[in-house]
């Protein structure tokens, strides 16, 4: 590295690095700096710059070797415990019949006592395993946030400006929901009139490919699969339809899911795309699983007291947050062994909200109705429960139509690639950067002068597509940096 020392009068290239974690001096320095005794108190932590790679590789190898040994030891203990607990030690029929009444009594008492002891041990182990899993998830989230401090990610992730400018617009009837495929070349739009249109999307230009009329009422939500040529739609007609792209280059109905008793307001799909999570006017959340390419309802989650407005799945995909037109946020967690979702936490809020979103496993945001603050909830590592930690000021916009609610169908969206949170609030769409320090910084607010605005951002953060009831059309905005 031919870098000159940060002290101009030294005028020579740097040669040394300091790895003392408590050192407050500049960590990259030259021989003249060393002579000034700046790092004299911890010379054992001063090394040649050229040895950087070897130093960290050695430390990492030692840490991971210890980690691997611990994993092997835990596995050995689990195997031993399993063998001991599930060792039957049953008497044969002949041995059983040869026992006296007293011996038989003692044997049965011993077996029952052993059974109770096993259940108690398993309960204790499962509880501690759940705690360990949560701890590991927290550590993973912390590492993910810390990785944002690396020079490469910091340059990529922390945008100095966020400015989305209109590059195209077209008149359309009311669109409630928008979804994109994995590379944002296909856009699906769901209409208030109950129809669905499929467009080619290329550099901000739209070209219609197909119009579908299978739902009986308004389309409320859409999701385009990323791994397959399929998309799903949720409607006011209480149904979810799975569409598939066929050899005739048209989209056709593949399966219709009809267990909800109210309109389907929101849909979430996991990364493997074998689980759909839906929220409805019937106050229920349904978990649908794909088996042999056929969808069935696996579980129904209760607890909400009014129609569900938003749901979000965390990155580890073991927790669901949801809100409804009732001042509560519910958090469900999936049990490791049974794969059943159970209610983990109920958060009471002063005002109900329409939108929430996981940012990381340990951070989520919630937009309360008609509030000029975005609420941030963070996981408390001591209690393993979420609690509100911040109120972020956000714009509410200027509504030209009085006495209107915020409207549904524009879910919060976190763009991981650019660390941008998209959050509609009344008449404004607020675009915020989640920086490497875990802070939300508002970068742009778009005032549509109406709460009747719906839309979505492409997963790469390049385009923001919206429909509003003042312009009566789609507006396509592109990121300008």
Automatic annotation (TrEMBL):
InterPro entries documented for this protein: WD40/YVTN_repeat-like_dom_sf, WD40_repeat_dom_sf, WD40_rpt
One GO CC term, this protein: cytosolic [4Fe-4S] assembly targeting complex
UniProt record, GO biological process: iron-sulfur cluster assembly
Tagged with keyword Coiled coil: no
Alphabetical list of SUPFAM superfamilies matching this protein: WD40 repeat-like
Pfam assignment, any one: WD40
Positions annotated as WD repeat: 257-288
Keywords annotated in UniProt: WD repeat
Xref: Gene3D superfamilies: YVTN repeat-like/Quinoprotein amine dehydrogenase
Origin superkingdom: Eukaryota
Name recorded for this polypeptide: Uncharacterized protein
Lineage: Eukaryota, Sar, Alveolata, Ciliophora, Intramacronucleata
């Amino acid at each position: 590295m031919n870098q000159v020392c940060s002290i101009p009068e030294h005028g020579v290239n740097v040669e040394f690095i300091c790895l003392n974690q408590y050192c407050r001096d500049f960590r990259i320095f030259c021989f003249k700096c060393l002579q000034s005794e700046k790092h004299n108190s911890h010379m054992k932590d001063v090394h040649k710059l050229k040895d950087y790679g070897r130093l960290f590789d050695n430390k990492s190898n030692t840490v991971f070797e210890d980690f691997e040994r611990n994993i092997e030891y835990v596995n050995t203990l689990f195997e031993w415990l399993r063998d001991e607990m599930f060792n039957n030690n049953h008497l044969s029929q002949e041995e059983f019949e040869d026992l006296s009444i007293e011996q038989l009594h003692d044997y049965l008492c011993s077996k029952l006592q052993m059974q109770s002891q096993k259940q108690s041990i398993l309960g204790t182990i499962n509880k501690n395993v759940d705690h360990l899993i949560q701890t590991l998830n927290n550590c993973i989230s912390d590492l993910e946030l810390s990785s944002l401090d690396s020079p490469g990610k910091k340059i990529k992730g922390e945008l100095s400006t966020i400015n989305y400018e209109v590059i195209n617009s077209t008149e359309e009837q009311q669109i409630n929901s928008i979804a994109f495929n994995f590379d944002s070349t296909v856009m699906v739009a769901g209409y208030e009139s109950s129809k669905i249109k499929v467009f080619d999307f290329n550099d901000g230009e739209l070209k219609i490919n197909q119009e579908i009329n299978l739902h009986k009422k308004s389309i409320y939500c859409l999701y385009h699969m990323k791994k397959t040529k399929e998309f799903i739609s949720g409607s006011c007609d209480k149904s979810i339809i799975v569409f598939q792209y066929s050899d005739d280059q048209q989209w056709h109905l593949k399966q219709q899911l009809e267990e909800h008793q109210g309109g389907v307001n929101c849909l979430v799909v996991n990364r493997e795309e074998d689980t759909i999570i839906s929220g409805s006017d019937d106050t229920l959340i349904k978990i649908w699983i794909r088996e042999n390419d056929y969808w069935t309802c696996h579980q129904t989650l209760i607890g909400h007291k009014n129609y569900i407005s938003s749901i979000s799945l965390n990155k580890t995909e073991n927790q669901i947050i949801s809100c409804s037109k009732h001042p509560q946020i519910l958090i469900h967690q999936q049990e490791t062994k049974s794969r059943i979702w159970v209610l983990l936490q109920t958060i009471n809020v002063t005002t109900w909200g329409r939108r929430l979103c996981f940012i990381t496993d340990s951070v989520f945001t919630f937009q309360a109705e008609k509030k000029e603050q975005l609420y941030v909830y963070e996981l408390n590592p001591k209690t393993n429960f979420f609690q509100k930690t911040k109120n972020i000021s956000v714009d509410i916009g200027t509504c030209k139509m009085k006495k209107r609610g915020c409207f549904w169908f524009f879910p919060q969206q976190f763009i991981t690639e650019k660390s941008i949170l998209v959050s509609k609030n009344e008449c404004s769409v607020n675009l915020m950067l989640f920086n490497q320090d875990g802070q939300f910084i508002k970068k742009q607010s778009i005032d549509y002068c109406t709460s009747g605005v719906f839309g979505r951002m492409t997963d790469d953060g390049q385009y923001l597509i919206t429909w509003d009831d003042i312009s009566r059309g789609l507006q396509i905005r592109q990121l300008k940096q």
